[in-house]
Amino acid sequence: MVEPGFLTDDQLKAKLLQYGVKAGPIVATTRVLYEKKLKRLLEGSAQTTQHKVNGTGDAGLYSDCEEEDGMEEDEEKDSESALPLSESNSLAETTKPESRGKSASLNQYGSPSQSSLFSSFSISQMIENRFSPQSHRSEIGSGSGLMTEQSRDVMMVEKETMTGRSLCLTSPPLRHEQAHREPVSDVLSEMFPNAEKTPTGIFATKRRSIKGAAGRPVQFKYPEMLPLSPTTLERQEIQQRRVPLWVQLVVFLLVLSLLYLIYCSMDEPLSSPVSALLGGLEEAAHICSSYATDIIS
Amino acid sequence: MSSTSQKHKDFVAEPMGEKSVMALAGIGEVLGRRLEEKGFDKAYVVLGQFLVLKKDEELFREWLKDTSGANSKQQGDCYGCLKEWCDSFL
Family assignment (chain B) (predicted)? Predict the structure, then answer.
């Protein structure tokens, strides 16, 4: 195998191109990165049962696998046969002692267990693979080499049923399935030729915010909890204790009529200072008029 | 789409000029100092690296991680910031 460290810049670039990687200028700062990339590619192709972890061509790093539903019940089956497919992380460790000859035991299982293999390569493992591909990749490769032709059929079925990029499509292909890896990636690139490749494989657009969904204005959402000033609160309290207006009027009229009846029922009119004054005024007028007549006469 | 920070918005709003590398989204004091030690003292130098890597996300993230020890979120923020700046001004 070629050691990337010993290649010239041009050779490195050419090698990367072989793997379909259009490298940019290989300068001092970029050289290391491209060497690492080439290393990953070389190890990836050497073990044909690798995941495609390259960022440029990667499809379903973090996407969901539909077979995950059957994962729990399949784990029981797996434990029965001592097949270490319990958790994704343990897979890397436990498949190490597994020999290639165990492929026979796998034949017993139908597609559900195959799919559990798919699902067991969970997101966390993908993240691990992405950032430390060296150690784990080889282990996973040996584990996934156990899969048989049944999984190939399952994969083809899944390719048709799954619309988006999924983990299962890029999950461990077989050793003799290298030819099928090409159609898997081509279908995706055909479907989405112009799509930007994101590291997570997830495409999301911002949802248009719905106005009024948050319950604005506030007073319509919380009608009983109006923000009121203290004055308004006081006024409301006072209004609760007020006697209604019509009741006040009725009472007033009643009292008036009562007093009038009392006044009428009296034998002699009340002596008020007004009447006394009026009487005095009348007397004065009489006196004046008598004087006047005296003077004239 | 995740929301962008104020730092991101400030950076992509105008040409970067002579802004320090710490003006980049995702790059704080610690990371900024590390980048400066490696010679990337201005934002445009990091931009240069970004462009030399042909704006490739994976390579740039890896470079940033190797050079400054940025975590995944910081890498993403910086990449997004530079990418958007390039879309507007380059």
Answer: Belongs to the BAF family.
